[in-house]
Known about the structure:
By secondary structure, the chain is an alpha/beta fold. Helix content is 34%, strand content 18%. It has helices at residues 22-30, 66-69, 74-90, 113-126, 135-139, 143-152, 167-180, 198-206, 245-250, 279-291, 310-329, 338-341, 348-362; strands at residues 7-15, 37-38, 51-52, 102-107, 158-161, 186-193, 236-244, 257-266, 301-303, 333-335, 364-365, 388-389, 394-401, 405-412. Strands 5-4-6-7-1-8-14-13-9-10 form a ten-stranded mixed β-sheet, sandwiched between helices. It has a two-stranded antiparallel ribbon with strand order 2-3. Helix 11 links the parallel strand 9 and strand 10. Helix 7 crosses helix 13 (348-362) and helix 10 (279-291) packs across helix 11 (310-329).
Amino acid sequence: MTERRRVVITGLGAISPVGMSAEESWQAVLAGKSGVGRITRFDCEPFAAHIAAEVKGFDPSNIIESKEIKKLDLFSQYAIVASDEAWKHSGLDRANVPAERIGCILGVGIGGLFQIEKYHELLLNHGPRKISPFFIPGMVSNLGPGNVAIHLGLKGVNYTVTSACTSATHAIGESYRMIRDGLQDVVVTGGSEAAVVKLGIGGFCALKALSLRNDDPERASRPFDKDRDGFVLGEGAAVLVLEDLEHAKARGATVFAEVVGYGFSCDAYHITAPSPNGEGAIACMRMAIQDAGLALEDIQYINAHGTSTDANDITETKAIIQVFGEELAHKLMVSSTKSMTGHLLGAAGGIEALFTSLTLRDQMVAPTINLDEPGEGCTLDYVPNEKRAAAIEFALSNSFGFGGTNATIALKRYTA
Length: 416
């Protein structure tokens, strides 16, 4: 059996509701800055929810040619710009790495809702001749990593993972396995999503999943709080460059963290609700810890899925307690950065893995803001409202999605 290679993170990029780069986004969440506000992209008055975590001030023109921007759905634009940052951040040079040894796997939960909504309206109002030949290539989800590969010249593995809100975590986990097993040397991975459109808001309103705290947007996303009333829809992209450790060391790369474990499972219970006892969440956390070769007491921090919904927050808490036991679970720090970014759907695991890697780099935990009083059954240390300095060697990042799909990655602080 081929020896497992070690896999490290050498590049980070982000376009998020709280920043136009990885570092800006990280400093914002450390400061407890909310990216939630009233929707500006369309008239939100007819909808029950008037709030979202929109990306603000996005201008891709320095990275993408103007004629190309018109052809691309917003999720692809976010993916390209975040990947460009991560690639530059990594210091990689394609001249020194065979292009077929560099891949791209991104999580995209929904895909081109902007394009679907735009061309559906054009079809209804003006007929089929108004449908652009770029509609289908702009809309399909695999054009997220496809466009990144074209932009960066990557000729290795290339596909999209679509597994609802677990998409990016699955993408990172599969990228980790590709490098660990020697199939690729570098993989650009993470997730991208752009669903803050009328169809997206309307669909989640119909599910009664969104917070309706319209008069107080910045306090609407409140994971684990007794007054939580649903999640806040977010958008953006977060990209990590994963690389074989020996390859990274040979070129003197900066390493942000090491990926050491990956777990996955399915509840097989319900299309939208998690299994009440958290069996799937328990299974994937245990698998990630086992894959990493860790003991339970090695873990100090969990970046929770933490959506600010009744079902998730209680179930995730139960699952953590079941995995770690009462004593160890209550020593853990568990925080939800969705309290600031909102829920980026298929990209959520990407931004949360990025934040977890920077937690390990800086030995600083981002808070769960808007946590005034924990809700019933929410009994852990959720790092309420203020960042916290802490010694952290190992951390988990959880993602759970519709259809009962679950994934966890385990990260390690890197020391040369």
